[in-house]
Design brief:
- This protein has 315 residues and is of the alpha/beta class.
- 33% of the residues lie in helices and 27% in strands.
- The strands form four sheets. It has a six-stranded parallel β-sheet with strand order 5-4-1-8-9-10, with helices on both faces.
- The structure holds 1-O-phosphono-beta-D-fructofuranose (F1X).
- The site of 1-O-phosphono-beta-D-fructofuranose has 16 residues, from strand 2, helix 1 and helix 8.
- InterPro entries: 1-PFruKinase (IPR022463), PfkB_dom (IPR011611), Ribokinase-like (IPR029056), Tagatose/fructose_Pkinase (IPR017583).
- It comes from Streptomyces plumbiresistens.
- Belongs to the carbohydrate kinase PfkB family.
Length: 315
């Protein structure tokens, strides 16, 4: 079973607009609502793959009730933590030329009691978890060390941890040796405090995260592909993608692909790449089902193209 923890979930609202004109009233040509937050998306992708998952998330207010309804409609098992504040709504503005602008709200503040209940819910649910995926930003009230605490507790209970977060929360958690961390290129560059211009720069940054405690690093490099670095070596994976529709949730789909394929080694990387490539070709944060995957379009190699210049370098 893959357990996911999303401390700061969201009601994701996507508006399709012809173009973004600042200061103008913009009439949307389409809109959709998805239950969101990175761990929630991982659960949606795991469930779409036919594997068991439970999503732990604080839920409150009308947006929280909507998120619960949407997850229920998708058949996702949820362990909700009721909170007094209202779950945030995150907005995505998708322009017709494919450019997407996202506005992520800070989310509600969790009281000390709610934080405790969240940790207790993780403890109870983690009993039959093979993996616990801890994903996304922390809501107000949770200290940057919160994920570190969660990793320590989960390891003590014998579970493996996949962590997808950024900034101080990522850095603080490294010392507890998460089994895999999943930064994107920006998060990787931020973590090591230097720009990334080549695939080799990303390999060096991933090695540095391993030196600081991560057992494995699964880094998504956007259109360039994905990198897996662990104690056995480094692999690079990429896929042919016909047309990108939305990259919202693509990293979450990748992490789900990685975990459902065992969570280590090149086969899991190939599954991560296939899931990420399928997700970007679907609208909003729709997660792929097995029929959306095209494993034949995926290449994974141990000959990492270290000199390759990134299409989307991080300065
Ligand atoms: O603010 P965070 O927690 O970093 O990210 C939240 C979020 O952008 O991540 C998901 C896509 O990965 C969306 O469903 C959601 O809106």
């Amino acid at each position: 079973m893959i357990l996911t923890v999303t401390p700061n979930p969201s009601l994701d609202r996507t508006y399709e607009v012809p173009s973004l004109d600042r200061g103008e009233v913009i009439r949307a040509t389409g809109e959709r609502m998805d239950p969101g937050g990175k761990g929630v998306n991982v659960s949606r992708a795991v469930s779409a793959a036919g594997q068991r998952t439970v999503a732990i998330l604080p839920l409150g207010g009308a947006p929280g009730a909507l998120v619960a309804d949407l997850l229920d409609a998708q058949g996702i098992e949820v362990a909700p933590v009721p909170i007094a504040g209202a779950t945030r709504s995150n907005i995505a503005l998708a322009e017709s030329d494919g450019v997407l602008t996202k506005i992520n709200a800070p989310g509600p503040e969790l009281s000390v009691e709610e934080q405790e209940l969240l940790l207790e819910t993780v403890r109870v649910q983690s009993r039959d978890a093979d993996w616990i995926a801890c994903c996304g930003s922390l809501p107000r009230g949770l200290a940057p060390e919160w994920y570190a605490e969660l990793v320590a507790r989960a390891h003590a209970a014998g579970a493996r941890i996949a962590l997808d977060t950024s900034g101080p929360a990522l850095l603080a958690a490294l010392r507890e040796r998460p089994d895999v961390v999943k930064p994107n290129a920006e998060e990787l560059a931020e973590a090591v405090g230097r720009p990334l211009s080549t695939v080799g720069d990303a390999v060096k940054a991933a090695e540095e995260l391993r030196e600081r405690g991560a057992r494995a690093v699964l880094a998504s490099l956007g259109a360039d592909g994905q990198l897996l670095v662990n104690d056995a070596g480094a692999w690079f994976g990429s896929a042919q993608v016909a047309a990108v529709r939305s990259n919202v949730g693509a990293g979450d789909s990748s992490l789900a692909g990685f975990l459902i394929a065992g969570g280590s080694g090149p086969k899991a990387l190939a599954s991560a790449v296939a899931h990420g490539a399928a997700a970007v070709q679907l609208p909003g944060s729709v997660m792929p089902t097995p029929s959306d995957l095209d494993p034949a379009a995926v290449t994974v190699t141990a000959e990492v193209p270290v000199d390759r210049v990134l299409k989307e370098p991080v300065s």
